[in-house]
Amino acid sequence: MRSLTTLSTLSIDYSCGLRSLPNWIGGLTLLTELEIGSCPDLTSLPEDLYSLTVLKSLTIHDWSGLISLPAWIGRLSSLEYLQIRKCPKLMSLPEEKRSLTILYILEITDCPQLSKRCEREKGEDWPKIAHVRIKVDDGCDAEAYFRFGTCTLSI
Predict the structure, then answer these.
(1) Are 152 and 144 in contact (CB under 8 A)?
(2) Which of 40, 45, 69, 141 measures 20 to 30 Å from 21, CA to CA?
(3) Which tens digits make up the pLDDT trace of 75-86?
(4) How far, rounded to the nearest angstrom, does the alpha carbon of residue 8 sit from its chain's CA centroid?
């Protein structure tokens, strides 16, 4: 894995049957973008990922088994963009998420339980994300929201 230490972007997608992520991911200390998707058998993020201190973008999608995000996610102090899509069992955001002070965009799509908890000024998790400058929820195009400040609904 020595040759991967300078890797800045990693996408793990459509990894059918993957029950855990490889431990070496935590050693990719220059990783700035990580996407993990279409891994229905994964139920959690490995603790090794907390060492990705320069990670700026994290995308988690199509995890039917994901129930919660780990508390250590708040230690990802460089995280600017967090996208969570199609994680229907994801119930809430961890308390430590408040430490993500430079998080600029939080996108939650097709996560009905989490979306309800993150509802603006009403949801139980709203206090955890109130500091995030741009919050995008179901039906919005995050890239358009980020670039143009508008939400384009897809019907």
Answers:
(1) yes
(2) 141
(3) 888 999 999 999
(4) 17
Q: What are the CA-CA distances from residue 77 to residues 21, 31, 51 (Å)? A: 22, 13, 10
Intra-chain end-to-end CA distance of the chain, in Å: 44
For the segment 44-54, the average pLDDT, to the nearest whole number, is 88
Nearest of 49, 59, 79 to residue 12 by alpha carbon? 59
DSSP 61: E
Beta bridge partners of 9: 33
Angstrom distance (rounded) from CA 48 to CA 38: 20
Joined together, the tokens standing for residue 96 give 């430590």
Nearest C-alpha neighbor of 31 from the set 8, 51, 48:
8
Confidence category of residue 153, pLDDT binned at 50, 70, 90: very low
| Cβ contact 88:110 at 8 Å | yes
Classify 47 as helix, strand or coil.
Answer: helix
User: How are beta strands 134-136 and 81-85 bridged, if at all?
Assistant: unpaired
pTM of the model: 0.83
